[in-house]
Fold each of these.
Amino acid sequence: MIHFIQKLAFSFSMTVCTLMATAQTTTPTSAPLTKQADGTFVVNTTTLAEDVKGYRGTTPLEIYIKSGKIVKVEALKNQETPKYFIYIRKELLPKYEGLKVNKVKSTQIDAVTGATFSSKAVIENVNRGLDYYQKNYKKK
């Protein structure tokens, strides 16, 4: 009986390991541009700006756009220093809310003091995301 339970436990653990490995290797990356049911477009900059680095790495974003205006910009998982990146979330990202997509590049958005590298990376992510949106949104 003990031998049977050991075999069963081993089989179960192997199945769990296989499932975990499969889940990690088959998780699809987010499409750069999706449209929600309410008409809001969401631009994911993960692949659009993978060469743009902040202080410690990439700073991917999701940009929400409805009726030609930015509804919000959300930071995705990144490797930036949390105590500095919180300033980006509180001070920089909200500056985009309500701006017309075609006016963002002509609007002066300043970097956050103390988080300059991260700020510049976020600003470049927004610019690339909006460029992609303007070139591709009519196809959705």
Note: Residues 33-139 form a domain with the Sufe protein. Chain: A fold (CATH 3.90.1010).
Amino acid sequence: MKYFYTFLLFLLVSINIQAQKLAIPIDTTIVTKHTTTIKGQNIPYTATIGFQPVWDKDGMPIASLNYTYYKRSNIASDTKRPLIISFNGGPGSASVWMHVAYTGPRILEIDNEGFPIQPYGVKSNPNSILDVADIVYVNPVNTGYSRMLPDKEGKMPGRDFFFGVNADIKYLATWINTFVTRNNRWRSPKYLIGESYGTVRVSGLALELQQAHWMFLNGVVLVSPTNIGLKREGPVEIANRLPYYAAAAWYHKALSQNLLNKDLEELLPEVEKYAINELLPALAKGAFLETTKRDEIIKKMSYYSGLSERTIKQHNLEVPKSYFWKDLLRDRDGLTIGRLDSRYKGLDIKEAGDTPDYNAELTAWLHAFTPAINYYLTQELKLKTDLPYNMFGDVYPWDRTENMTGENLRQAMAMNANLHTMIQSGYYDGATTYFNAKYTLWHLDPSGKMKDRLSFKGYRSGHMMYLRNEDLISSNQDLRDFILTSSKNIAKGSKY
């Protein structure tokens, strides 16, 4: 009898272990039907939440990518219907941010300035671009529900296949090819939109899709872009901080009254002009800048940034952004300001120090986004899984070498006369600042011959400028206008 109970216990433990093993869907779809109202128009659509494999060179699945695809269902033909392929950043970030806060048909329950409210949830997005384009939100490996897959022996594929600038671009281009083929979208105008590190991804994909898959795009949208491999170091990087400092200080009323009396979009061109024409040449002289000129520069930097002259002098004119976030309000209310969106405030254990204890804005966002996306995908889109949704997944170490993505985008545009690029940036973004984004735009095409296909839009918000309702409206409209502009001459062919 003792051996029987021992065997029974072993059997129960074995069954329990098997039951606990997480199943990763490899090639599945769940389709639901919906209706929404956008710009006063009734829009019926289908939402497909699915998993599509990534294969190795031998045709074996080595990863399963989770995606959500929205398709307007009362369109007779897809031939002229644009398809938007959307990525977020990190690297390691899921596609949640733009999905349920920017372009999708359902968005977060947040207040009009983007701050979390309870109860958590989602609501209709009357500004979604689904009226003019279909959208697919893609989660790269280890983000969202996407995962690597073991082989028959249980061995995982090499991480270098996925986790690096160029590896990421290569496998995602192949995945997009499969998605476009399966969904019969080869004839559709196609657009890529990426946010933050996602701008590196889509800039590289523009050329990879064109060169390796012969898939030509009509547009690339860079939301809060990184440097996409274009250099801006030394005096340029330091001078480029000042317009952002001015924007954040203006928002928190940390400037002199005569500057606060100006509208933000009146003030910023003034600061930009100073940064380029006065500050940059002065910084280039370094220690050999004349004393009187140095004192003049310190005074002006203080005037535009809200920092004290003493602070700027002590930092040799190079005040790090992390110190700015800690110091701007130190002597007023002892609070810090956010990195990705400097409208947000944080509370540190000590007022002293060189950098904030935490990112106030990211904490607030995770507050709202995490419960919303987990509820929305499982309850409204009917996905049933025990996989945890990775807001941020394990993708490190990430190989950042040979980042030529800015040059990749330039080359793709040069070879494709129908390809347009738009940058969208928030003035209060301290991580990927709006003036650095402008600088990237200026240097994306050194020839100056593609200026008519390059555009910039700024907003009174931060990294996720669409969280503020007024900017949600205008940024989606800017996307609509961009799609219209970039498709004007396609019937004439791609030619110079």
Note: The chain has a mean pLDDT of 93.
